[in-house]
């Protein structure tokens, strides 16, 4: 489960989701890392790097990911 703080604006104390939480969110919505990279126009390795913990997801990328998933654009 992803804490509510992961969905809050930075000014309200945004909490960066862990790689496991990102994967859980994608799985729950049936979205693949490939689809996310296409929708967000990020490098081909970027979603895998978020999921492996190699790099941390930025607020702007996380909020764009959530918007794309929730609007159906990523599905």
Characterization of the model:
The protein has 75 residues and is an all-alpha fold. It has a single domain (4-71), classed as Orthogonal Bundle (434 Repressor (Amino-terminal Domain)). The protein has four helices and no strands. It has helices at 19-28, 33-40, 46-52, 59-71. The chain is globular and about 30 Å long.
Mind sketching the topology for me?
Layout: H1 19-28, H2 33-40, H3 46-52, H4 59-71
Descriptive key words:
434 Repressor (Amino-terminal Domain); globular; mainly alpha; single chain; 75 residues; 51% helix; 4 helices
Question: What is the gist of this entry?
Answer:
The chain has helices at 19-28, 33-40, 46-52, 59-71. The protein is globular, with a radius of gyration of 11 Å. The protein has 75 residues and is mainly alpha-helical.
């Amino acid at each position: 489960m992803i804490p509510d703080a992961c969905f809050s604006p930075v000014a309200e104390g945004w909490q960066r989701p862990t790689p496991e939480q990102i994967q859980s969110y994608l799985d729950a919505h049936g979205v693949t890392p490939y689809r996310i990279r296409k929708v967000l126009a990020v490098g081909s390795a970027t979603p895998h790097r978020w999921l492996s913990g190699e790099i941390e997801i930025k607020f702007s990328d996380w909020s764009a990911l959530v918007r794309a998933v929730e609007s159906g654009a990523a599905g």
